Amino acid sequence: MIELRVNGVLHQVEAGPETPLLYVLRNDLRMNGAKFGCGMGQCGACTVIVQGKPVFSCVTPLSSIGAREVVTIEGLGTLAHPSPLQASFIAHQAAQCGYCISGMIMRAQALLAANPHPDEATIREHMEPNLCRCGTHMRILAAIRVVAAGEHA
Amino acid sequence: MKRRTVLLAASGVLCAVAFAIMWRPSLRETTGTPIPADAATIARGARVVAQGDCIVCHTAREGTSYAGGYGLKTPFGTIYSTNITPDAATGIGRWSVDAFRRALRHGVSRDGHFLYPAFPYVHYTRMADADIDDAYAFLMSRRPVDAPPRKNELPLLFRLRPSLAFWNLLFLKSGAVPAGRGVVERGRYLAEGAGHCASCHTPLDFIGGEEHGKPYDGATVDGWDAPPLNRLDSATRPWTQGQLVDYLSTGVASEHGAAAGPMRPVVDNLSKLPRADVEAIASYVLSLQKPRGVRNDTPVNPSMPAGYAEGASLFAGGCAGCHEPSAPMMAMEGRPSLDMATSIHADTPRNAIQTIVNGIGLPDEPGVSVYMPSFDDALSNRDIANLLVYLRVRFGKKEPWRATNKIIEEVGKDGSAPP
Amino acid sequence: MTRHDDRVDISRRAFIVNGALVVAFATMAPARLLAQKVDTLGTVILAPNLPGSLKSNPFLDAWIKIDDSGITVCTGKVELGTGVRTAMLQIAAEQLSVRPALITLVTADTARTPDEGYTAGSHSMADGGTALFNAAAQVRFLLLTAASSRLGVPVSRLTAKDGEIRADDGRKVTYAEAVKDIQLHRQADATSPAVDPKTFTLIGTSLPRVDIPGKVTGGAAYVQDMRLPGMLHARVVRPPLPGARLKQLDVTAVEKLPGVVRVVVDGDFIGVLADDEWRAIVAARALTRAAGWTAAPALPGYAGIHAALRTLPAKVYPTASRSTAPVSTKPAFTCTHTKQYVQHGSIGPSCAVAQLADGTMTVWTHTQGVYPLRGGLAEMLGVPLDKVHCIHVEGSGCYGHNGADDVAADAALLARAVPGQPVRVQWMRDQEQLWEPYGPAMATDLKATLDDAGNLRDWNFALWSTPHNERIVNAGRLAPATLLAKPFVSAPPVPIPNPEGDADRNAVPPYRIPNLDVTMNFVPEMPFRTSAMRSLGAHINVVSIETTVDELARSVGQDPVDFRIRHLDDPRAVEVIRTAAREFGWPYRGTDDRKAAGFAFSRYKNIMGYFAIAVEVAYDPDTNAVRLLRAVAAIDCGQIVNPDGARNQIEGGILQSTSWTLYEAVDFDEIQVHSNDWSGYPIMRFSQVPDEVSVHIVDRPGLPFLGAAEIAQGPTAAAVTIALSRVMGSPLRDLPLMRHAPFGRT
């Protein structure tokens, strides 16, 4: 059993220490937000926040998490009470198929937590690791930009 | 009295000598409207400029090409590269070809001030006039960019540029190398001159000069080991001409690994050169080999040293998807197996740590590329240390590196990309 | 890749005798010319006079069911990330006069919804939306009629709203009561009660998408998120390339790995079932190592693909031909364009869940067509159609025929091995990129002349392509079925007929041209399996046409926008062109020689949505860096159901097409495909995203829905190509336009 703290809740996890965090979140903890995209840290669909930093959960072994706090999109807000960033993504209708969007939001959230008012260049550079195939980038940027400017949707 | 006169005279002479050493005239400004060169000259100049990697240091991140502003971290502080576009006010638009030659040969700016040796004039001085002139023509054909130079971040002592004259006395041997015949000689010309390979691959002494008697013995640059170029023959798998050419012209050698760290942009540039140039450089580099010592390659019997099991687990979850032999990258792409990787066999774990911590970045423009994510935020320092034990023993068949923690901390701390 | 295989069971290829097609599968007509009996999405036309998909599903109760539990609306179309679910809801709610929340919307399910074939080709609104629009209007009218009888007042004194019909005297009848007096199992009428579009309160509004809140808060939204009780996780192991055959495989060690429930090996088909997803992956890695394969047949290689395409045997299809004026004596303008193989490249690899229970195979799938998939699966499993049940659950965006159907077959084959237990299969990244059917490589030759007045006179266009429509018309179209010990063989390819077109989609220019000849060389034997990808041949065809028109206009000193308008008779075409030009600020007056603009237009398939676009690009010769700076587009898709949804689709289309056009190509040599991950198949990232994209809608209330999802692909590619050609100073004719030398190879 390995202890894992996710969204403020301490879990006892049976998975082996080598198991990438992604599968622990999805299968052991039955969460949907982090997605399998490439398994190689190339696309960012699996992005979650570990100790304030965005990480690719698909290549982050469970044993490396230790006591660090994991935050997933389930920990930002809910359907009834979305976080400002989630609300902004809804307001901008910043999704097409939406498969990449949880990863996008988590990466952006990590930026905004560390730097609440990033400029456009900083936002774009920060988001570089995450891929979107539908071409929703303009709306993703708009949704982040509004929160970065402090104009919560 | 007499003694005093002698002293005075002596100091006068000294002053005169010092003045002669430290003073350089300003050269006449041109009108700032360059005379357009013919296309063939510009094309030759483009090749020379690529040989010299000029764009790498003279372009800021996200900045305009050749407009300067790139910060070179030196042990003395950060030096920002200058604008070498033909902008009259902020670039080299008013430089004559003579001023340009003097800068490359003697490290002196048009207005007479000394340039810092971060600008590798100690090597550019080896270039032939014709090549320098072509490079000038090429740069003058670029679009002028208004980009004022950024102020260097140096302690006061090092802001006294005239003192560089004494540095030059020690390290600058002006003059072109005569272009000899043959591939190796051509390679020598390119590597010693425009290519300035030794700038990174030779250890520097305490005042930043290349140590005498240790050419190509290897050094540390930007937190990466620039491996010795005279020991390529002693590698676990000795480098061959073919492998070296592949590495320099494509960024990957199938038996050694991919270019990373500060070498990556160098390779990006070399890939634009005619293959003959790269083959010449490779031939010359391979001619530098010291005699093989007694190779201590007896494979270590992995006796499961401390950290190995933890490292194995980390590898299975974090690395195996790309680096196990069954991974598509290995099975289909023929990427170098880690048991061949130079960084795993190296004497220090520095480059392995750098690669784990910083990854191998995406190319500037979308193109088929070698990429590895950064594991800085995923793995703790202890994880990295354990992973290194596993990598070294399993793939390197060697004893684990010692004192890895210090380098891990160092790389983690300033492993961030340059300003 | 065609297999020359002596193990093929002759009985399974009953439809091919002596190389000739004699029996077609299920609903697919055997030849292009007979195809009018089915529509291009594979459904049988039963009532040709009815609007939209009512043609193939004429009964009202196939679409709308009303009972005491509420209103259920069924659509055979599926959510692919285009917002179609929300748009369908808007249409049904509008015409039934209810709040959207009162409707339960069921999307494609072979047990519950009409068969609308595939959700593809920008047809969802045009066919499915139109069917719902009419069915709902007719149902509402029937309900009003029933209420009128019950209450004894004329329909004119009744108001229907939110499930109730009220008379002006205050008495009311609920829809559920009224429906008892009528029979919804009746064929729809050809015309529906007229509605004034000015009265619409839902159609034409940007109702927020119903699926987005769940998707941004971690709700279970995709087939990937399904977790059924007792569900096993599976992975498949594929040959390194199609055509490689299994030489050896010892599974004993893998079977002993922790969590492994079963290893299935059937011919070249290999799968492993485990009690946990990560354990399945670890076991699949071990299987990959254990498997030995023969070499696959040599490939033509990246550089050789277009020469190969022109020399492989081709069927020649005359797409269009007319001759109404003397041939021009002016010198001809000629050009050749090429396009490399491209990948759909879904961010989420294909996934399916299957369960064999009580003799029925149920498959949860993100296929674009549950009914065609059911047919293919039933044939593969050797069971009757009614023993296979396909239910659509959303997946990652597919943009056409990707691995969705194949992975459903994987899941069915593996679930068959463990009756009763649900099995979830997801492909790994390399499997998605190596085994999805690619968008075809193509080549085009164009020759055109102007007359003495500078008008288009002669136009000769020929194109070469492999199929764009290898959809599931038999089991052999499912990749796993071709790997079995007794393999199934793919049905012979048949191109989608005109006017929709296949490789020749949009091959006929929309302009007034007296003499015209357009020919498709259809190459059925292909180095790679290819199939439908957003806009099919329109991508390169519109590039070929629009770059030529641009160059011809400039050759006679005319503005390319004015030149186009001069050659168009359709006022709707002219209006979108003028709108895009005006909003962009055309003619372009930029003075920076590192920036340029391009303009392009097309009407999708020449019968659907209109699209015009102007773009500005920047090019840095020192670094070869290209940026799309600005794109301004105008669309006319008839009556717009959801303006923001349409804009979202167009913005996405512009960015995706830009990525295809600038960067994308399957990288392969003679022995291997190298594009098996994102570093081998790079696509647009945030640093390449433009500064500004704006979409201007020319709305046409009351006119038919025309669809929007695919209309941006061709013209965007053309505008980017034109702009980049101008800034680089020479015409660019090979897609992708900016291919950088692959790292690691020369």
Based on secondary structure, the structural category of chain B is mainly alpha
Span between N and C termini of chain B? Answer: 58 Å
* Interface with most residues: A-C, 56 and 62 residues
Strand line-up across the major sheet of chain B: 1-2
The structure class of chain C reads alpha+beta
**How many independent structural domains of chain B?**
3
User: How many DSSP H or I helices of chain C?
Assistant: 16
What is the CATH architecture descriptor of the largest domain in chain C?
A: 2-Layer Sandwich
Give the CA-CA distance, first to last residue of chain C. 27 Å
Largest sheet of chain C: 7 strands, mixed
Helical percentage of chain C? 25-40%
Count up the helices of chain B.
20
Main beta sheet of chain B: 2 strands, antiparallel
Keywords (chain A): 2Fe-2S, Iron, Iron-sulfur, Metal-binding, Oxidoreductase
GO molecular function (chain A): 2 iron, 2 sulfur cluster binding; metal ion binding; oxidoreductase activity
Organism (chain A): Luteibacter rhizovicinus
Protein name (chain A): Aerobic-type carbon monoxide dehydrogenase small subunit (CoxS/CutS family)
